[in-house]
Structures are given as structure tokens and as C-alpha cells.
Amino acid sequence: MLSTTKGKISSEQFKWFDSYTKVLLAVMFVLLLFIFGAGKYMDSHKMVAGGTDDLVNNLATAVTKGEHHPFVELPGDAQLGAFSVANFFAGLIIGHHWEKIFGKPVVEEEEAVKVE
What we know:
By secondary structure, the chain is mainly alpha-helical. It has a domain at about 20-50 and about 75-95. It is about 65% helix and about 5% strand. It has helices spanning about 20-45, 50-65, 80-95, 100, 105-115, and strands at about 1-5, 10. The chain has a two-stranded antiparallel sheet with strand order 1-2. Helix 1 runs antiparallel to helix 3. The protein is elongated and about 65 Å long.
């Protein structure tokens, strides 16, 4: 995406939402929709799914002597699953755009090859 003009680098607009990124975001949102939907269903039917988060929250409540109020209430370890899905897809997208974000400019790569 970088082009050289007489030794200078002119950066063009990066296409962040290419087809790969769009597909990954769509799959991620569908999976998160299922996780949040299952959490809502379990909550509306008063189902209990104990997990490690409940133990940690109960311990924190006992220590701070105050109630915890999560941003989104998900039963059991569903919150952990939602964060894991989101972080997995964020990692794939960052990895796909790695050179766009952190890559060396073309001129520096060419000079490094000439020096060797």
C-alpha cells in the first residue's frame, strides 16, 4: 500500500475493512449474539450456571462489603466466553493488518537489502 516517489514515501489510504475483516467481524458478532442470547434466555427462565466468576464476585463482595454491578449480566462463565471470542477475533484482525500498522516503510527495507 506504500508507494515510493524519488525516495519519499507517500502513504495511500489503508483499506481497514477489507473482505477478510468484514467476514471476521460478522462471524464474531454472530457468535457474541448467540452467547448474549443464551445468557438472556437463561436469565429469563431463572436458570443457574455457576462459574468461577460467581465465586470471585462473591469473594469481592464479602471483602469490599458492597454489591458488584456488572455492565452486562451473563450467567456462569458466559462473560469469559464472550471476552474470549471478542479477543480471538480482534487478534486475527490485528494480525491480518500487522504490516499496515507496524511494517517498515518500503524505502527502509530496500536500503537494508542494499547494505547487506
